[in-house]
């Protein structure tokens, strides 16, 4: 709602005041109408929609507080500003408690009125955008907990919905933080196996022995500390879905064991001699280039093709044009519920700051940033100052990039380096800020040949 569409009704029993205020507001670009008394104002409020009602407190007959009370019932979306020459704490508090946006003490300067109107109209525009985003979220842009208006992502959602109805193995590809597990859960929820369990196992941070035990289970006495029989994830996922994250990180021996289990639908627990038969749907995921790993001999070709039945590649956030406002509202709605904080939205300046980031940690990083902003926000709107940590890093990046390549890879490199500098190269803290795991951050450091001395002052 811009100025040219914002309709304001000025209500005052003094003609010179009505005329002066209306002229000021028209010069600012608003559509302005006038009412000489409270009763006329109520008739116009009932008949027409208004963005703002500028109402005098003291009027004969129906006074400003009565207009305010009735306006809250007739036009709850309209914002009411009370004008008074009798400014007391009591009248101000009463007006605000009744639902007034604010009040102005007569006489006031045109600049004071202009500033308040700009702030008020900006807030109404933000509320309107939030309503539209919420409607969009409830309609065609959601696939379970995944949100996107990007055409490629929408096509991906449709493919996932079709794939969910089959029992074929699905391989989800994409950078860290793009939502691979969320997509796996969405596919499970859309599948005929939705009533069965969804069991997830990350293969990135476990040793070969631990992964084998976690995946296939073990018998009592199979190794030191195995005091009882334990079911593995494969067995636990019987009748449901087994999600194997970071599948590209498993050892050659486990690749062979997994291939056999997939082909035969049975396996042996560690230390066991009796086969365990299972019926589970497999969804695997990785941020690695598995095809390249096959060519280099690091991943079995037969397992690759066994997993690569239905490949789905998630886009990084930097390629999802138009999704950041939608995702921000989605996360804000979740954070409101989780933190019990009554946030109304994100200011235009703060949103601009979010949109201009490169997001190497993708959607996960965006959520982490919004969670931090939600914690530090002082008012009902997340402002740019609440994202100051992001803006300072962005400013550093822009300064650094002025004499360097502006490619996405270069921007990602500089952003990661900036975060590492800010945390004195503490990998755990840096990975948390970026919304990625330690293994992924180490891979990024290796990929971009980052060195700690790069963060030292010149």
Written account of the structure:
This protein is an alpha/beta fold. It has 3 domains: 3-137, Response regulator (Rossmann fold); 143-315, Rossmann fold (3-Layer(aba) Sandwich); 320-455, Helicase, Ruva Protein, domain 3. Helices cover 49% and strands 15% of the residues. The chain has 19 helices and 18 strands. The chain has a 5-stranded parallel sheet with strand order 2-1-3-4-5, with helices on both faces. A 5-stranded parallel sheet has the order 9-12-15-8-16. The radius of gyration is 30 Å and the shape is elongated. The model is unreliable at 396-406 (pLDDT under 50).
Radius of gyration: 30 Å
Structural class computed from helices and strand pairing: alpha/beta
CATH architecture of the largest domain: 3-Layer(aba) Sandwich
The quaternary state of the protein chains shown equals single chain
In terms of DSSP E residues, the strand content is 5-15%
Please outline the major beta sheet: 5 strands, parallel
In the CATH scheme, what's the topology name of the largest domain?
Rossmann fold
Mean pLDDT: 85
Can you identify the CATH class of the largest domain? Alpha Beta
Distance between the termini: 49 Å
Q: Would you identify the CATH H-level superfamily of the largest domain?
A: P-loop containing nucleotide triphosphate hydrolases
- Total beta strand runs: 18
Report the principal-axis shape.
Answer: elongated
Domains, number:
3
Strand ordering within the main sheet: 2-1-3-4-5
Helical stretch count?
Answer: 19
List the uncertain runs. 396-406
The level of helicity is 40-55%
